[in-house]
What does this fold into?
Amino acid sequence: MHRYEFHLLIPPEKYLDYYRGKVRQVIARSTTGQNVQFPASLLQRFITQDGIQGKFILVCDEKHKCVSLDRQE
It folds into this structure.
């Protein structure tokens, strides 16, 4: 399993591009300096009035398929 930690700060106006399908992938830099790319649809459950913000942990299997995406409180 691969584990990636990263911070996101996506304002609500910018997330509309993801929500409308204009942008389908999110690219973030992990805390170890790696670029992580994943489907924007994984973030839908984290949307608030303020957009999406916080520290996230993405876990992928050996084939790099997402197993889980969680936000740390």
